[in-house]
Design goal:
Layout lengths: L4 H17 L1 H9 L7 H24 L2 E2 L2 E2 H19 L5 H16 L7 H15 L1
Antiparallel strand pairs: 1-2
């Protein structure tokens, strides 16, 4: 379910506040963010997944067993699992960080309000939401 425009704006405000409050933590979280892989990385992950699937099925057909366990099928499963991780944690785009930094600079230059703590701003927004209803 996609976010509404209001929710997207709130999320962007929270992100920019996080970058302003603690840029070191925000950059470490950004590096670990899931779902930010490129199209090329996804294509590589799909190709590796297919190779793993072939190994998985081929291991059942060939029946190479070590200790009664189909070892080629196990290797195929591990390759498939690795491809899934590659698709999830693949290299993210560098332009997103540049856009975010540019957004922070623009926001700071036009904001004339005194700086408050992140938690205070979030608490105020939370209270405003219930006052509106």
């Amino acid at each position: 379910m996609p976010l509404s425009e209001h929710e997207q704006r709130m999320l962007e405000q929270i992100e920019s506040a996080l970058y302003a409050e603690d840029p070191k933590f925000a950059s470490s979280v950004k590096r670990r963010r899931l779902g930010r892989s490129s199209g090329r990385r996804r294509l590589q992950a799909v190709a590796i997944f297919v190779v793993g699937l072939v190994l998985l099925v081929g291991g059942l057909i060939v029946e190479v067993r070590v200790g009664g366990f189909p070892i080629i099928s196990l290797i195929g499963f591990l390759v498939m699992f690795g491809a899934g991780l590659l698709a999830l944690w693949g290299g993210g785009s560098r332009s997103a960080g540049a856009d975010r930094e540019h957004g922070n600079g623009a926001k700071e230059s036009r904001g004339s309000a005194p700086k408050r703590k992140f938690s205070e701003r979030m608490e105020e927004r939370f209270n405003r939401r219930f006052e509106q209803e």
